[in-house]
Amino acid sequence: MDAAAPLDIDPLLDDPKTRIVVCCGSGGVGKTTTAAALGLRAAERGRKVVVLTIDPARRLAQSMGIDSLDNTPRRVKDVEGDGELHAMMLDMKRTFDEIVEAHADPERARAILSNPFYQSLSAGFAGTQEYMAMEKLGQLRARDEWDLIVVDTPPSRSALDFLDAPKRLGSFLDGKFIRLLMAPAKMGGRAGMKFLNVGMSMMTGTLGKLLGGQLLRDVQTFVAAMDTMFGGFRTRADATYRLLQAPGTAFLVVAAPERDALREAAYFVERLAADAMPLAGLVLNRVHGSGAARLSAERALAAAEHLEEDRGDGRGENLVDGRIVDQGSGKAEDRGTGGSSPEAPSPTGSEAGASKDDASASGAPEDGVSVDRLTAGLLRLHAERMQVLARERRTRDRFTALHPEVPVAEVAALPGDVHDLAGLRAIGERLAAQEETAGAL
Q: How does pLDDT run across 373-384, given as a tens digit for each residue?
């Protein structure tokens, strides 16, 4: 099967027409690291970049050398090149507060911000985080202060929540229930009270029993205060949705080479196509590799079994306190030639003792049996690695068979976590080096 076309990252980041890059995918696949690495690479190639993250682990701030991130973009130091890098972390409640303060007069804003129902809604209503990420994206783009905005989408149960949340929250705020609660305030005076007492008596009584009378009054007070703002939520959500569909936006779907993650990625690719949103490609993160890929798992296992069968007489069981020790008269100085020579003189006295002490101190195996056992163990480890590679290849190939039109960038797994700019820079280099690694998995 032909490998997927490589995803060319640098032309995407260098193109001045690219104004927004959205990194999306299921949770735990490395979206935050990918977004940060893309932002750093774009900045070091001369662009003025802001990275918006919604990552609760705050790894992004640590990797960029910033004490903390908040709702205000912070300049990142030690960026090489002529560009600039800024980073920020979405504060969901603060963003909601800013919307209220910007679209309501001071008295009404105070009433809304102090309302218990609003405080609950702004802090934890389903979809609020995703909606506020969209709001913040719209705010950043409207400021026109940065050449490029890189968005790390929320760690939702489903990657699709980011696209669906504005519509869901807008539907809630514009829904029949909210309009019904708004009706008394709109009618005003005695007519409004009469409507509330007569037309809503059954509903309020039922809700009062289910939710509590105080909560219902809080909801009604909130709705009355927010009356003039409901249309704005839907309008801004629609505007940001259109912004995501614009030619200057590029979606990157991030996934791990695992079945569930790539299934979610495939679903997201299909959804982006259905919504006419511009997909740049797939970033396949944490891909395993091997420097000895020519040695198959089957050959490695066969060689390991052959070594173990040759030593089946028990002479290899040579372990003391978890260390391999010499029980025979092997000569450490002869290991470089593969064994002892019958013509070689035998060390005597202190020379023999010194050679044995040196071998023990170095931790090196002192007979062929121990070497064979170590070799067999390494061969089995290699076989396990090759089996992982084969499984990842099959998983990737299933995705590319379904979506051959999607370019793929493969990022090799690192031995540890990324915790500084050097690590992010290394990720960016791997992202950009796809011509060399395409199809190598």
A: 888 888 888 888
Question: Which carries the bigger pLDDT value, residue 180 or residue 266?
Answer: 266
Confidence at 390, pLDDT banded by 50, 70, 90: confident
Going by C-alpha positions, the residue among 93, 88, 63 that lies closest to residue 78 is 63
Average pLDDT over residues 101-124: 84
pLDDT reported for residue 5: 85
Long-range contacts of 8-12 (CB under 8 A, 24+ apart): 8/407, 8/434, 9/38, 9/41, 9/409, 9/428, 9/431, 9/432, 9/434, 10/41, 10/45, 10/432, 12/250, 12/280
CA atoms of 134 and 153, how far apart (whole Å):
9
Burial of 328 (0-12, 13-18, 19+ CB in 10 A): exposed
Give the pair of three-digit tokens for residue 348.
């005597």
Q: What angle do CA 270, 54, 231 make, to 5 degrees?
A: 75
State the CB neighbour count (10 A cutoff) for residue 174.
13
Pairing mode, if any, of strands 84-89 and 48-53?
parallel
Give 293's DSSP letter.
Answer: T
Report the share of the chain in percent with pLDDT over 90. 24
Alpha carbon distances (Å) from 14 to 86, 247, 257, 302:
17, 15, 28, 50
Rounded CA-CA distance 281/302 in Å is 40
- Its pTM stands at 0.74
Averaged pLDDT of the chain: 75
**Who wins on pLDDT, 392 or 321?**
392
Are the C-beta atoms of 58 and 38 separated by less than 8 Å? no
The three-state secondary structure class of 322 is coil
pLDDT at 77 over 80: yes
Beta strands in 227-355 (DSSP E): 249-255, 279-287, 319-320, 323-324
Contacts of 28 (CB under 8 A, 6+ apart): 155, 256
Contact partners, residue 191, CB within 8 Å, separation at least 6: none
